[in-house]
Specification:
mainly alpha, elongated
Length: 179
């Protein structure tokens, strides 16, 4: 049963991590850029991506929420066993997973719904960058913070995967010693 729980945690966490990786299209335009190289064109591209996300079908949000809940419940279920390996690896996983969920719930979702759900899209893909309006200063900070929050969530979920792999490795070492 432990193998099934671990498989569910790894698969669902990898799914959520993949969702965050898709945001790299927009996040790569804003992360690690100096103010001199941060152009309005890059910021408009990122803001447009986030606005498109907010106009997507709501059923996707329900699916993402369900997968998020499955991971949390499965890790807590595994933690309930009380074995030392579960306490160490799953305890760390719960901390990292809770951090990712908290950052997403208290930073990403409010920023998306406040700043990008009603954003009028000022251009199409054929609009030349020179004709774009100036990027609103009120959206500059939320756009940059979204990229940073996505990065924090990605690192935390990668830590969950690493801890689950460490747990598997430790359990395999225990099995080898018992044989």
């Amino acid at each position: 049963m432990a193998g099934l729980r671990m498989s569910v945690v790894i698969s669902a966490t990898a799914f959520l991590l993949g969702l965050l990786f898709t945001h790299w299209i927009a996040d790569s335009l804003t992360l690690w850029k100096s103010p001199e190289t941060q152009t309005d064109s890059r910021l408009w591209t990122a803001a447009t991506y986030y606005a498109i996300l907010m106009h997507g079908p709501p059923q996707l949000a329900y699916l993402y929420g369900a997968v998020t809940l499955v991971v949390g419940v499965t890790i807590l279920w595994s933690l309930r066993d009380g074995r030392a390996g579960n306490l160490m690896f799953d305890g760390g996983s719960i901390f990292l997973y809770s951090t990712a969920v908290a950052v997403y719930m208290y930073s990403v979702l409010p920023s998306l719904s406040t700043n990008f759900s009603t954003l009028p899209l000022p251009f199409t893909s054929s609009t030349p960058a020179a004709s774009l309006p100036d990027f609103p200063s009120s959206l500059r900070e939320p756009t940059l913070e979204l990229a940073s929050s996505h990065l924090v969530c990605s690192v935390a979920l990668t830590g969950v995967l690493a801890l689950q792999a460490g747990r598997w490795w430790a359990e395999q070492a225990d099995i080898d010693v018992d044989d």
